[in-house]
Amino acid sequence: MYLHWRKASRIDRQIAVLWSATGAALVLLLPAWSTPIRALPACPVRAWSGVVCPSCGTARALEALVGGHWLEALALNPLTVSAAVLFVAAGLVAPAWVWLVGRVPSTSRPLPLPLRATMVLAIAGNWIYLVARGV
Amino acid sequence: MDEPTTQASPPGLPFEQTGRPFFPALVETVKLLVTDPTAAFRGMSLTVDLWRPLLYGVLIAWLAGAINYLWGLAVQASVFGVLSRIEGIEDLAPAFCLGVFGGALWLLIAPVFILIGIFVLSLIVHLCLMIAGGDEQGFATTLRVVSYSETAQLAQIVPFVGGIIALVWQLVLAIVGLAEAHRTTTGKAAVAVLLPFGLCCACLVGIFMLAVLTGVLSR
User: Fold this and answer.
1) With contact defined as beta carbons under 8 Å apart, do A115 and A107 qualify?
2) CB contacts < 8 A (A, B)
3) Minimum Cα–Cα distance from B127: chain A residue
4) What is the pTM for the complete model shown?
5) pLDDT in tens, B149-182
6) Is A128 touching B (CB cutoff 8 A)?
């Protein structure tokens, strides 16, 4: 309904290549990520105020993801982990998709209100989950 | 993955125009983005290949990193020089050399990380722009704006506070750029740029503090 398909342009192909390269680099550098992730400081707002923010648990979730503990990662921050996995997976198939299928998904601009509301609800839902779970 | 809806795309920044010498075009683009960012982003091409803005962003951010590295070395050298005169302190040359080689190695691989950073940041900002209802152009336009907003990283030439200036300046450049390039309101552009800070303020504050602390310690 809100999504339509259009012919892939030259710029789309460039984005697909870039996306793929980024996804591949993230996967190839996977063993190297755990050190900088561990170096991240604990959430200062959480430490000072006790308030759980929408991104709380992200560092631990990414560490678990890098360590191959998918379920643990998902439980720590479902939205961030889903987005990260989707980003890498979609990036890896993007060039093949653009060249073989030749069409890319598109929405009307600006993004229709129901889709914007869905995105806000996803962030809010994830936040409520984090607060309830005490991540 | 989208393409701009604009029918007649602007002529493009000096760095985007083919046939111009590389370095003069780079310097001219930096000048334009520093002195008149509104005109620069208004004149930015929305149809030229993405490699040019990306090359610009990576190059400028890398240069800023190199400047930061050299500042760090200069301060480290002077601190080690003072410390080495104190009796009882062991030879600090190996530690200094390790710092020099570690930094040089980082500079060698930094372009890959800068490119990943620009792409991921553009994606986050564009998603926030979509939420704000300001995505009048496609993702490619946001990617161009984020790449050119890396110009602000040159503020790292200022010792000690350069990182903070660069951060604030980059936010301002990105807001101006999104508003001009997407033909949207400054308010929506500001929401797109500042919303990630609001959503993950804690983590960003933490990372920022770590970056400032690391910057101070490295000097």
Assistant:
1) yes
2) 107
3) A119
4) 0.86
5) 999 999 988 888 888 999 999 999 999 999 999 9
6) no
